[in-house]
Amino acid sequence: MSPGAAALWHTVGVIEVVVIAIVLVVLIPVGFLMSTSIAAGLIGFLLKDDAETRHADSELLETNR
């Protein structure tokens, strides 16, 4: 293998490591936080809707708005 080819393979290896580090440090945590916030919003909406349906005749619903 020529010295130029070895340097190219070394550069490709370094780029791969940098990409993996970015994915592990930035993309996975951000994706996890975004998905949990979406899940929390959906659960909150469904529980609020369920509570309003179950207690439709309660006078306390007006105080929560």
Uncertain segments = none
Give the biggest sheet.
Answer: none
Morphology = rod-shaped
- Into which percent range does the helicity of residues fall? over 70%
Percentage of β-strand residues: under 5%
The number of helices is: 1
Structural class category: mainly alpha
Q: What is the number of beta strands?
A: 0
> Taking Cα atoms only, what radius of gyration do you get, to the nearest Å?
26 Å
Element-by-element helix/strand order:
H
Averaged pLDDT: 87
Task: Report the span from N to C terminus.
Answer: 73 Å
Structure report:
- With 65 residues, this protein is mainly alpha-helical.
- The protein has a domain at 21-52.
- The chain is 80% helix and 0% strand.
- The chain has one helix and no strands.
- The protein has one helix at 3-54.
- It is rod-shaped.
- The termini are far apart.
Q: Summarize this, please?
A:
With 65 residues, the chain is mostly helical. The protein is built from one helix and no strands.
Keywords:
mainly alpha
